[in-house]
């Protein structure tokens, strides 16, 4: 620990330009940070940047942005070059797929391309920060920074301390999240899925078991109950479609947890939710039910 961990953050590198990555880049740029958005393929970077641009434009259209969207976009640079993205970064936020080896490999490359004062964060939603950090030279530099989808609309961020994370890193990450005008929740127990997803997964899974067993009247029942009776913004199946059914199933498989058949059969049929146009619901045909 060289005493530079609490350093001021000006430049943020976000690795992974998918729905979480581009959203994290967006909220960082809106808060005034210079941002690098990096992915491994030019097309991924372009897609992420287009979504970011759309979202910033939408916020501006609705009067929810304090400045010209072009000024926000000027702070975002894109690249496929890892060294370029992280070389001058004060904070690196990783938002690549939920694959332990892939994340470990990426952080090894990031360590080689950054100085020891750069703070490293993972947006993992299901893996332990300690496990991701286990093969790094400096596990004290790495913390969890778990955003929710879509980052630009969701207020909560879990800031997770791995078993070896330095206190200064946690404090800096916490302050960074506050500077995004979001609400950080400190998680000191580095368990798989942290706090929120340990609560959220049963919310999404239980109606799946009911559907499998014929105990629910259909997909709309649980969603309607939660939205119209409980005031949730989305019901469990709608939320699963929103996040991607493949991601949900992959996460459960990773821990050898059972998955309701309704989820698995949709993934097997490549009906992955909103992103493919069909999941529990059909988004191309007036949002009717797709899973009977
Ligand atoms: N950027 C900018 N604008 C957006 C946007 C975005 N990312 N997403 C939606 N909008 C716009 C819409 O286009 C719409 O504009 P319009 O009125 O001109 O058509 C406007 O915002 C209103 O959108 P909606 O009517 O769809 O709904 P709301 O604004 O009320 O809310 C929502 C959208 C925030 C997504 C809300 O439905 C919600 O909170 N859903 C639940 C999300 C949630 O629970 N996320 C957590 C998932 S779990 C997770 O992330 C864990 C992780 O580990 C995977």
Walkthrough of the structure:
The protein has 292 residues and is an alpha/beta fold. It has two domains: 11-187, NAD(P)-binding Rossmann-like Domain (Rossmann fold, 3-Layer(aba) Sandwich); 197-282, N-(1-d-carboxylethyl)-l-norvaline Dehydrogenase, domain 2, CATH 1.10.1040. Helices cover 45% and strands 15% of the residues. The protein has twelve helices and ten strands. It has helices at 19-30, 42-61, 69-74, 82-86, 100-113, 129-133, 167-179, 196-213, 219-229, 236-243, 245-254, 261-268; strands spanning 11-15, 34-38, 76-79, 91-94, 119-122, 142-147, 156-161, 183-187, 281-282, 288-289. The strands form two sheets. The chain has an eight-stranded mixed sheet, with helices on both faces. A hairpin with an 8-residue loop joins β6 (142-147) and β7. α8 packs across α10 (236-243). The chain is globular and about 55 Å long. The model has no long low-confidence stretch (mean pLDDT 95). Residues 55, 58-59, 125, 148-150, 152-154, 197, 200, 233-234, 239, 243 line the site of 3-hydroxybutanoyl-coenzyme A.
Main features:
292 residues, alpha/beta, Rossmann fold, N-(1-d-carboxylethyl)-l-norvaline Dehydrogenase, domain 2, eight-stranded mixed β-sheet, two-stranded antiparallel ribbon, 12 helices, 45% helix, 15% strand, binds 3-hydroxybutanoyl-coenzyme A, 3-hydroxyacyl-CoA dehydrogenase
Present the secondary structure layout.
Layout: E1 11-15, H1 19-30, E2 34-38, H2 42-61, H3 69-74, E3 76-79, H4 82-86, E4 91-94, H5 100-113, E5 119-122, H6 129-133, E6 142-147, E7 156-161, H7 167-179, E8 183-187, H8 196-213, H9 219-229, H10 236-243, H11 245-254, H12 261-268, E9 281-282, E10 288-289
Parallel strand pairs: 1-2, 1-4, 2-3, 4-5, 5-6, 7-8
Antiparallel strand pairs: 6-7, 9-10
Bound molecules: 3-hydroxybutanoyl-coenzyme A.
């Amino acid at each position: 620990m060289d005493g530079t961990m609490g350093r001021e953050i000006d430049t943020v590198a976000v690795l992974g330009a998918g729905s979480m990555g581009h959203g994290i880049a967006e909220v960082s740029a809106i808060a005034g940070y210079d941002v690098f958005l990096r992915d491994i393929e030019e097309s991924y970077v372009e897609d992420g940047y287009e979504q970011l641009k759309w979202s910033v434009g939408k916020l501006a259209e609705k009067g929810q942005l304090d400045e010209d969207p072009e000024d926000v976009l000027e702070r975002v640079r894109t690249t496929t070059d890892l060294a370029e993205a992280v070389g001058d970064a004060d904070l690196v936020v990783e938002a690549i797929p939920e694959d332990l080896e892939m994340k470990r490999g990426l952080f090894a490359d990031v360590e080689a391309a950054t100085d020891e004062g750069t703070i490293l964060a993972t947006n993992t939603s299901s893996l332990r920060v300690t496990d991701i950090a286990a093969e790094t030279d400096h596990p004290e530099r790495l913390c969890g920074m778990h955003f929710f989808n879509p980052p630009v609309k969701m207020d909560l961020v879990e800031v997770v301390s791995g078993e070896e994370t330095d206190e200064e890193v946690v404090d800096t990450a916490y302050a960074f999240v506050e500077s995004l005008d979001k609400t950080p929740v400190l998680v000191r127990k580095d368990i798989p899925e942290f706090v929120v997803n340990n609560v959220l997964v049963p919310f999404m899974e239980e109606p799946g078991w009911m559907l499998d067993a014929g105990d629910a009247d259909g997909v709309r029942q649980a969603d309607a109950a939660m939205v119209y009776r409980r005031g949730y913004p989305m019901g469990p199946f709608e939320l699963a479609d929103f996040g991607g059914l493949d991601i949900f199933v992959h996460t459960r498989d990773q821990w050898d947890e059972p998955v309701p058949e309704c989820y698995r059969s949709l993934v097997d049929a490549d009906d992955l939710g909103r992103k493919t146009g069909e999941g529990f619901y059909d988004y191309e045909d007036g949002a009717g039910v797709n899973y009977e």
